[in-house]
Amino acid sequence: xxxxxxxxxxxxxxxxxxxxxxxxxxxxxxxxxxxxxxxxxxxxxxxxxxxxxxxxxxxxxxxxxxxxxxxxxxxxxxxxxxxxxxxxxxxxxxxxxxxxxxxxxxxxxxx
Amino acid sequence: xxxxxxxxxxxxxxxxxxxxxxxxxxxxxxxxxxxxxxxxxxxxxxxxxxxxxxxxxxxxxxxxxxxxxxxxxxxxxxxxxxxxxxxxxxxxxxxxxxxxxxxxxxxxxxxxxxx
Lengths: 111, 115
Fold this sequence. Notes:
The complex is a heterodimer of chains A (111) and B (115). By secondary structure, chain A is mostly beta strands. Chain A has no helices and 12 strands. Chain A has strands at residues 4-6, 10-13, 19-21, 23-25, 31-38, 42-49, 56-57, 64-70, 73-78, 87-94, 101-102, 106-110. In chain A, the strands form 3 sheets. In chain A, strands 2, 5, 6, 7, 10, 11 and 12 form a 7-stranded mixed sheet that branches. Chain A is globular. Chain B has 115 residues and is an all-beta fold. Chain B has strands spanning 3-7, 10-14, 19-26, 31-38, 44-50, 56-58, 64-68, 73-78, 87-95, 104-105, 109-114. In chain B, strands 2, 4, 5, 9, 10 and 11 form a 6-stranded mixed sheet that branches. The radius of gyration of chain B is 14 Å and the shape is globular. Classes of the chains: A mainly beta (111), B mainly beta (115). At the A-B interface, strand 5, strand 6, strand 10 and strand 11 of A face strand 4, strand 5, strand 9 and strand 10 of B.
């Protein structure tokens, strides 16, 4: 079975902190995604990557950056956390044109 | 460009009743369509997918969905709801060759099951 592992289930950070959310997949998928989930808004794409060191902005990239130094790992970085970044963050991976496999999610609270 | 509309943010049914969750999509090329389920504080889990084979797709937990090109719809059904079906359901689309492979999600429908 494909496994997508997010490093933390719950995080509490202070405003202004630099925050790293880590995601690792074990099925050699070329595509990896970071989504943000908020009530009533569904899943919104922050960034995606289709290869090592490649990244593309999604719909809401402001305030975020990403890193993909190895194929299996895709990191989301909040350069300076703000309270409006309190949310559920979901990482996913896929092959081309197939379904996405999701991690368990990280619920981030910024205080 | 692709998009997904899920009608109804909440659907309430009685245990044993038919479940119908609606999804309409727009896509410039033949789409791949998916339904996912999310239980509280969990990630998304694939229920079923349409990838241009049979138009009636069967998934896990007794769910199925029918692709109707003329209506640009991919509604999810289950003949008899169970309490354990209470969850958030997301419809998603990604386009086939020549389109965007990035899945686009609807806003989700919360299924409430009453005893």
